[in-house]
Write a structure and sequence with these properties.
Blueprint lengths: L2 H11 L3 E5 H14 L6 E6 L6 H10 L2 E4 L2 H9 L7 E3 L6 H9 L3 E4 L2 H10 L5 E6 L21 E2 L3 H11 L3 E5 L9 H15 L7 E3 L17 H19 L4 E4 L3 H4 L3 E12 L4 E5 L8 H5 L5 E3 L7 E7 L7 E9 L6 E4 L20 E6 L2 E6 L4 H5 L18
Parallel strand pairs: 1-17, 2-3, 2-10, 3-4, 4-5, 5-6, 6-7, 6-8, 8-9, 9-10, 12-14
Antiparallel strand pairs: 1-11, 11-12, 11-16, 13-16, 14-15, 17-18
The structure holds pyridoxal-5'-phosphate.
């Protein structure tokens, strides 16, 4: 989006503000579907956790996507957005059997990643098909926090537990309709997907009633100019050919599924903040914005890089700044950033603000979470109102301290 458009939107809706570009979301969706055009049945299930605003979900529904959900509330959001239950896959981790049963009752596809839960679920509901999340034991992903397919990870059923898995399936007479993996986020090397696919195919051979194989997600997107990204086109060509060969030996055209979050929405997002103060110290110049890790936690949580530019003064002289927030904690968004000269009141834009940004926001310091705007059809649509004090207080229950304390009675 152009600076002028973003500034106009910031003027109209205030700051801090998340703005998402629907065209960018659509072009990423189309890029992925084109890369896998050689596969007969392809399903992209958008990972709701990345950005869960109901208007974003409806946009994906219009594009023909399904959704990947990880909580019963995300399932409910998907249903509220108009997805049919069979367009929703529910991939929880560490939730109760009770929650899985609730999701199954709603008719969504169930993905189980734990043998104990699988045995209990299969015993009680042998007629509900389930997908199995495999842990293929591969080390993948941008950093330890987002690597989830290795041997020490809590996610998935180990490939070494397949004999036990088969015993449970046979004993309960349950039916397995899918095999799934998700090994991490920010995976640059396509060989990770190709290597892990062999493990999934090997596992898949054990099940006769499969409908789909889900390769999860984890595609890396560029964060700054010149940054490298996962080569989606090469992955599409190579994985499609392996998948088609597997379907031929399996004797059925299965669906190839992915569940991308970051790839679809990261670059569509722009986070707009206003500079409250410019503070010169003995060691740096701080630009202090009207936000903090309550609104965008990725830099502090994962060390993620978000490019920051000054859209109020794009052609000013460049200087070095430390961009920080207004939270009573160290909340540094970026150190030693070369940014065009910043004055108080300027609007700074953070790039790659679509995935895991608003969805990880909180009310820490009792601050309001930002508003959200979708730029769609050449128009800015407010898709989440700015919070008010009522949002901070409305679930809080006050104790009446005016009453005299009663003496504790002897037991
Ligand atoms: C099970 C599962 N699927 C899909 C995703 C989406 O991954 P990404 O945003 O890297 O595409 C995640 C992210 O954590 C996940 O846990």
């Amino acid at each position: 989006m152009e600076n002028a458009q973003l500034l106009k939107i910031a003027n109209e809706f205030g700051s801090p503000l998340y703005v998402y570009d629907a065209d960018k979301i659509e072009s990423q969706y189309n890029r992925l579907t084109t890369a896998f055009k050689a596969v007969k049945k392809l399903k992209l299930n958008y990972a709701v956790k990345a950005l869960s605003n109901i208007s974003i979900l409806k946009l994906f529904k219009n594009l023909g996507a399904g959704i990947d959900t990880v909580s019963i509330q995300e399932v409910q959001l998907g249903l509220a957005a108009g997805f049919e239950p069979e367009q929703i896959i529910y991939t929880p981790n560490g939730v109760s059997l009770d929650e899985i049963e609730k999701a199954a009752k709603l008719g969504v596809k169930i993905n189980i990643d734990n043998l104990s839960i699988l045995e209990q679920f299969g015993t009680k509901h042998p007629n509900t098909p389930v997908c199995i999340r495999i842990n293929p034991h591969v080390m993948a992903g941008g950093n330890a926090n987002i690597s989830v397919g290795h041997i020490d990870s809590k996610f998935g059923i180990s490939i070494h537990q397949i004999p036990h898995l088969l015993r449970i399936v046979e004993n309960t007479k349950m039916s397995i309709n899918g095999i799934h993996m998700h090994t991490g986020s920010d995976i640059l090397d396509i060989d990770v997907f190709l290597y892990a696919s062999e493990i999934l195919f090997d596992t898949a051979k054990n099940f006769k009633n499969l409908e789909f194989i889900d390769f999860g997600s984890g595609f890396k997107v560029p964060y700054k100019s010149g940054d490298i990204e996962t080569n989606i086109e090469e992955l599409g060509e190579k994985l499609s050919s392996k998948f088609n060969a597997f379907c031929a030996t399996y004797g059925k055209d299965l669906t190839l599924a992915f569940e991308p979050g970051k790839f679809l929405v990261s670059e569509s997002g722009h986070f707009l903040t206003k500079v409250n103060a410019v503070k010169q110290t003995t060691s740096t110049v701080f630009a202090q914005v009207d936000s903090g890790f309550n609104h965008l936690i990725r830099p502090m949580f994962y060390g993620s890089h978000h490019e920051i530019d000054n859209i109020s003064n794009p052609s000013g002289r460049e200087r070095f700044y430390s961009v920080v927030g207004y939270i009573c904690e160290t909340d540094t968004f970026g150190n030693n950033r070369r940014i065009t000269e910043i004055n108080e009141g300027d609007i700074l834009r953070f790039k790659n603000a679509g995935a895991y940004c608003f969805s990880m926001a909180s009310n820490y310091n009792s601050r309001y979470r930002p508003a959200e705007v979708l730029w769609y059809n050449n128009k800015a649509h407010l898709i989440r109102k700015r919070e008010t004090f009522d949002d901070i207080i409305h679930n809080q229950v006050e104790v009446d301290f005016s009453k005299k304390k009663e003496k504790a009675s002897a037991v």
